[in-house]
Amino acid sequence: MKVTLVTVIAVLMMIGAAHAQPVNIGIKGGLNVFNIKGDNDESFDPRTSFHLGLLGHIHLAEDFALQPEVVYSSQGAKYGDDLKLQLDYINIPILFQYMFDNGFRLQAGPQAGILVGAKADGEDVKDGFETLDLGLGIGASYVNPATSFGVDVRYNLGLSNINDNDDVDSFNRGFQLGVFYLFRHRSN
Description:
The chain has 1 helix and 9 strands, in the order H-E-E-E-E-E-E-E-E-E. The protein has one helix at about 1-20; strands spanning about 25-40, 45-60, 65-80, 85-100, 105-120, 125, 130-145, 150-160, 170-185. The model has no long low-confidence stretch (mean pLDDT about 90).
């Protein structure tokens, strides 16, 4: 229920912003390479998966934009060959972008993630993790105005402890490489 409410609110914010400023709506998807870093001595291997979602690109000024997104993101980590931890989130990043004249963009901003599922080797372990994951996204993107297609690379730095166990602090860390398409792309 929380996920549905947050998703509806984010979509309504994108629609509302569309009437206030020039805005582009789009879809995106791509590759995730995530891991979990903690304050204990355990070492995990990265887990490769995917992300898929919606984005809004709101022009605030000639060179600046705001890009809110609602993205399903499959994250987690691997521990040797035995344990595969899958953490599924609905991530809502709000990126501030500096746009260059040639289609390149630098971006950074906060992200809230809502845990919708957690499995370790097929077994439900959601009770062992916090529902909310706060983080920071930093990256770059390029959009080709002639085709409205673009590419995006981002590093997600988890800032809040995702572990429900008070003895160990654990944080999401990961890279995303994706493609996106902007419907009725307007460059101004």
